[in-house]
């Protein structure tokens, strides 16, 4: 078997194809689509704990996109397993129709030597492609506890509400509140626009 050297014409054609071919398109970078970034540093909500508290935040997407990640200010025991879901909503509340799911070890959210307040990223390995509308993310801690810093007292995010479920309360999601009234979680939802 003999090999022949490519002709000048073949080399020129290959070079023209390489130069004129459109580059492979990279995914657009994630952008903040929904947020309530103000953090109440003096308050911490239990995630898990003796009452198995779960937290949620409904939010509104104004445009279609792939939800790449959410960010919340929290710190966890290293042994905790944090489960995050993106869900459809009914009446503004998460309704259990899961669109994306992620499980993250608690040590990812551990700040040493002392808890530092700041947003922590939960990236979806199988992100959901969503259209405009209202959705929610939920947070659950198993095998350990976490603390989540909420937003300030009051409803500062018009596109949704904060929610909780805890043992010894009526079943279902209850609007997040304390002595100062209702409140939202501090959060950011990032999408890759379509």
Describe it for me?
With 194 residues, the chain is mainly beta. The chain is built from one helix and 15 strands; from the N terminus they run H-E-E-E-E-E-E-E-E-E-E-E-E-E-E-E. The strands form three sheets. Strands 1, 2, 4, 7, 9 and 15 form a six-stranded antiparallel β-sheet that branches. It has a six-stranded antiparallel β-sheet with strand order 6-5-8-3-11-12, with no helix packed on it. Strands 10-14-13 form a three-stranded antiparallel β-sheet, with no helix packed on it. 32% of the residues are buried.
- How many distinct folded domains? 1
Number of helices: 1
C-alpha termini separation: 51 Å
- Gross geometry: globular
Structural class: mainly beta
Could you list the spans in which at least 5 consecutive residues all have pLDDT below 50? Answer: none
The arrangement of helices and strands along the chain is HEEEEEEEEEEEEEEE
Helicity, as a percent range: under 10%
Mean pLDDT over all positions: 88
CATH fold annotation: Jelly Rolls
User: In the CATH classification, which architecture applies?
Assistant: Sandwich
CATH class (first level) name: Mainly Beta
Query: What's the Cα radius of gyration?
Result: 23 Å
DSSP strand content: over 45%
Query: Biggest sheet, in brief?
Result: 6 strands, antiparallel
Counted beta strands: 15
